[in-house]
From TrEMBL:
Higher taxonomy: Bacteria, Bacillati, Bacillota, Bacilli, Bacillales
Family under the similarity heading: Belongs to the aldo/keto reductase family.
Record site feature (Lowers pKa of active site Tyr), residues: K63
GO MF annotation list: oxidoreductase activity, acting on the CH-OH group of donors, NAD or NADP as acceptor
Listed name of the protein: Aldo/keto reductase
Active-site residue list: Y38 (proton donor)
Source organism of this protein record: Paenibacillus ginsengarvi
InterPro entries: AKR, AKR5G, Aldo/ket_reductase_CS, NAD(P)_OxRdtase_dom_sf, NADP_OxRdtase_dom
Keywords assigned: NADP, Oxidoreductase
Residues annotated as binding substrate: H96
Length: 261
């Protein structure tokens, strides 16, 4: 699984998502993250086919939506996603949100898909520690990934610690806090100047050095390219701690414990 991918949440189906994904693939991205509820799986699949990049060199993620959770309905939803993507498999299939009373049956369906060789990896999204603690005793296969909101204002320290102890890879959505405030924060701009990088690159590098996979979303080719230039420098331990100090346990997205499923 690549450390950096392109997220396509809120990227419109059709030409916008096709151009965004094709730009990323041309720049060198090899990981694309979509979901059934994003409504753009067809465009993602089209962009990948038109790119000419061999399918086996790509890492494609999609997710089962809340309304489709449950054993049989999840299996059907996976088939529908594959059909829209125009693929024989995806590399990572996630439960999008922990729908109470359903996510265990949904997980059994993901385990079947994995055992049958129809998906290369399975995981969850937006699961708190208590959701994972509830799921793990019943799981035959441990979730391989937990994709959650993660940025310097929401450092998710207990979850990150738990995932590392359990061998679950944490992945960040909204790593730039949807562009709100962090990119202009005094500390981030100071560090951008110090390292000769942009504010976004400083934040994305912070993700990587915490061992968190990151999937920033953009439809602008220059920004997609900029976001990829995070492997040629390293933040000092002191600067990592300074960024850690920005944590306020503050979300820009829904809280999984109070989400209107």
């Amino acid at each position: 699984m690549p450390w950096l991918g392109l997220g396509v949440w809120k990227v419109t189906e059709g030409e916008e998502v096709v151009k965004s994904v094709r730009s990323a693939l041309e720049i060198g991205y090899r990981s694309i993250d979509t979901a059934a509820v994003y409504g753009n799986e067809e465009g993602v699949g089209r962009a990948i086919r038109e790119s000419g990049v061999p399918r086996d060199r790509l890492f494609v993620t999609t997710k089962v939506w809340n309304a489709d959770q449950g054993y049989d309905s999840t299996l059907a939803a996976y088939d529908q996603s594959l059909n829209k993507l125009g693929m024989d498999y995806v590399d990572l299939y996630l439960i999008h949100w922990p729908v109470k009373g359903k996510y265990k049956d949904t997980w059994r369906a993901l385990e079947k898909l994995y055992k049958d060789g129809r998906v290369r990896a399975i995981g969850v999204s937006n699961f708190h520690v208590h959701h994972l603690e509830d799921l793990l005793p019943k799981a035959e296969i441990k979730p391989m990934v937990d994709q959650v909101e993660y940025h310097p204002r929401l450092a998710q320290l207990p979850l990150l610690k738990f995932c590392k102890e359990q061998g679950i890879q944490m992945e960040a959505w909204s790593p730039l806090m949807q562009g709100k405030e962090l990119l202009s924060h005094e500390l981030i701009t100071e560090l951008a100047g110090k390292y000769g990088k942009t504010a976004a690159q400083i934040i994305l590098r912070w993700d990587l050095q915490h061992g968190v996979v990151t999937i920033p979303k953009s439809v602008t080719p220059s920004r997609i390219q900029e976001n990829a230039q995070i492997f040629d420098f390293e933040l000092s331990a002191e600067d990592m701690q300074r960024i850690d100090g920005l944590n306020e346990d503050r979300r820009v997205g829904p809280d999984p414990d109070n989400f209107n499923f």
